[in-house]
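User: Here's a structure from my thesis project, written as structure tokens. My advisor, Dr. K., wants to see whether a designed sequence matches the one we expressed. Can you design one independently, without my sequence as a hint?
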């Protein structure tokens, strides 16, 4: 069983399967404690894979795609949801973030997109509530970083802390 976190506005795009749990992100936006509680609940229910689907700001003027499969992120917030006392029953203090997004789940997403003939781009996420400063955009684009979003990155860090694999898709914000 997998859990799928999605932006409420995208619900119509999601074909729900009976063997998945669907969790609207709107219930947890800007509420880190509730999100942590949800991740703990998923871990307790032995759900070890989640997909995150959320709208993103696109700051690369050359990016024409609607869908972006996220391979990594840059946390530009100066903050981290793991700050504070650690609950060892959830996960290790400092989880390995070498590969924050599961290659296996990313391959599943790519296969689905290719089968449905959906154009996509692999990218790095700029984790922030805002787009990057103009002075940084050129450097970020050279690092294959073209989109920004806070929720995806925050949720990924918490899930990885709990040992849950993450696959993530950013969708161009309308």
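Assistant: Designed independently from the structure alone:
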């Amino acid at each position: 069983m997998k859990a799928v976190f999605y932006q409420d506005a995208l619900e119509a795009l999601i074909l729900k399967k009976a063997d998945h749990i669907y969790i609207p992100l709107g219930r947890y936006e800007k509420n880190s404690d509730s999100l942590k509680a949800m991740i703990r609940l998923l871990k307790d229910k032995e759900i070890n894979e989640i997909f995150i689907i959320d709208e993103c700001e696109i700051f690369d003027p050359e990016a024409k795609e609607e869908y972006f499969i996220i391979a990594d992120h840059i946390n530009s917030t100066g903050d981290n949801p793991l700050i504070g006392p650690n609950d060892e029953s959830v996960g290790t203090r400092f989880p390995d973030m070498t590969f924050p997004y599961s290659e296996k789940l990313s391959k599943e997403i790519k296969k689905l997109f290719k089968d449905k003939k959906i154009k996509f781009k692999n990218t790095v996420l700029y984790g922030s509530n805002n787009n990057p400063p103009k002075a940084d955009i050129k450097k970020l684009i050279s690092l294959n970083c073209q989109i920004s979003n806070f929720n995806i990155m925050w949720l990924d860090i918490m899930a990885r802390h709990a040992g849950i694999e993450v696959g993530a898709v950013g969708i161009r914000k309308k």
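When you compare it with your expressed construct, this may help: Residues 2-172 form a domain with the Rossmann fold fold (CATH 3.40.50.1580).
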